[in-house]
Amino acid sequence: MFPFSPLFSPEGNLPDLTGKVVFVTGANHGIGYKTVKHLARRGAKVYLGSRSEAKGLAAVASLEQELAKGAMKSLMPGKVIYHHCELSSPTKAREAAQKLEEIESRLDILSAFLIVFLDQHTD
């Protein structure tokens, strides 16, 4: 009913993102990390959101190395920037958003990867 391609390739299917501003939460590992890598590879300026500064800065350093090695010939890689992002409460999430708003005049893409662990079971 809805045709789709069974194979998705970030290199072939993502558009040129040069000049776009992106914020990815939960980005110091896993799917968030890979998302940052592919968006930056397509030219975006990507803010890597992580609550741990040490892990966030380590992820930025690793991504910078990966981007330098795997730069696409047709595009200059974008930039990856650590941004402290604590989402454990609405107040802390608002603070992270306000700090980003002080730096950037716009946000083109938000990609949120968040795992919530509940202390109590619900029915």
Topology diagram in text:
Elements: H1 10-13, E1 21-25, H2 30-41, E2 45-50, H3 53-69, E3 79-84, H4 90-103, E4 109-112
Parallel strand pairs: 1-2, 1-4, 2-3
Helix pairs in contact: 2-3
Brief digest:
The chain is α/β, with parallel strands linked by helices and 123 residues long. It has helices spanning 10-13, 30-41, 53-69, 90-103; strands at residues 21-25, 45-50, 79-84, 109-112.
What does this structure look like?
The chain has 123 residues and is α/β, with parallel strands linked by helices. It has one domain (16-112): NAD(P)-binding Rossmann-like Domain (Rossmann fold, 3-Layer(aba) Sandwich). It has four helices and four strands, in the order αβαβαβαβ. It has helices at residues 10-13, 30-41, 53-69, 90-103, and strands spanning 21-25, 45-50, 79-84, 109-112. The chain has a four-stranded parallel sheet with strand order 3-2-1-4, covered by helices on one side. Strand 1, helix 2 and strand 2 form a beta-alpha-beta unit. The longest helix is centred in the middle third of the chain and has 17 residues, at 53-69. The N and C termini lie far apart (36 Å). One of its GO terms (molecular function) is oxidoreductase activity.
The fold-level CATH name is Rossmann fold
- Proportion of residues in extended strands: 15-25%
Q: Largest sheet, if any?
A: 4 strands, parallel
Shape: globular
Protein name: Ketoreductase (KR) domain-containing protein
Keywords: Oxidoreductase
InterPro entries: NAD(P)-bd_dom_sf, SDR_fam
GO molecular function, one term: oxidoreductase activity
